[in-house]
Amino acid sequence: MRLPRTIYSPLIALLLTLAPHARAQADAPSQSPAPYRLNVSVDEVILTFHAADAHGLPINDLKLSDLTLLDNGIPPAKILDFQLQQNFPIRAGILIDTSISMSPHRFRDQSIATEYAQQLLRQQTDQAFVLNFDRTAQLIQSWTSNPEAIHNTTHGDPIGGTALFDALYAACRSQFGAIDHRSSGNFILLFSDGEDNASFLDLETAVDMCQRTNTAIYAFSPDPNSPGIPTLAQLAAQTGGALFHDDASATDISADLRTIESNLRNQYRVVFRPATLAHDGAFHPITLATPDRVATLTIRSGYYAPSPSAPLKRPARHLPRKDSQPLSAEGPTHQSLGRRPKPAPPSPGR
Q: Cα-flanking dihedrals φ and ψ of residue 326, to 5°?
């Protein structure tokens, strides 16, 4: 057994959720027909991951005995559930940075979002919404399975200021938090340079909400040298997503989108109880060793422990813009086969 090429990326949506209990440990994963509902307690962790062979094909026959999981360097106290999830419905949030700095890249980003909606969104089962943001966030299109509705709304007028963390928090809480996010593969398709200069919330708060709603962030950045690249890499790594660059060729962009879909439609879910878990908000790094035939493992870099009960500081502010629907904020490194996303360093935590 070894550590495969780790793609601290979309499939590890590791998340801490509030609720009653998970099912008993099983060596071979049960194939759960949709809808699959899983309830876990606050001191249990959900980890999702994707395994692929040297050709990039999904490996869907792993057993629990094939894996060695370490949480913060030590084995978990107990594995409570092990599931193979295939062909779950996908829920996608398309978030487009409409600030002035992104104006030169608007057409390219809209084309990528449209390609995803028209080529990969399954109208029978999948849904997506569109949210534009600058210094505020506006829900332009609510949940829909109509690709044309998505194409017709991926537009926006540039405004100064970028509240990236506020937009991510609002999208995960107001949209993914309003659906049964345990019964679908959830991700945010983010188009941004990663430079946040207007958020009330910080990166950690945004990541925590994405983890709680089992939502991975896949980001497309227009400039690999942007000062915001480390921010985008950290968002991807800590939510189980990946970082791509939208200046790649059309062929590579299409391959990137297919990678996202394959990861979300072929993943394992592990529920475990940590050996030690203080309610201190500390970051717990995760490592997962697999058989040698697993060439690429897409998994999140870790998770945040529950924080002590405290009122949220500086609640996000979202002001409506004309002809749009305001959003209320109330209420992994990724390595890839061949080309693909740049590596993102694991987060040191707080």
A: -70, 150
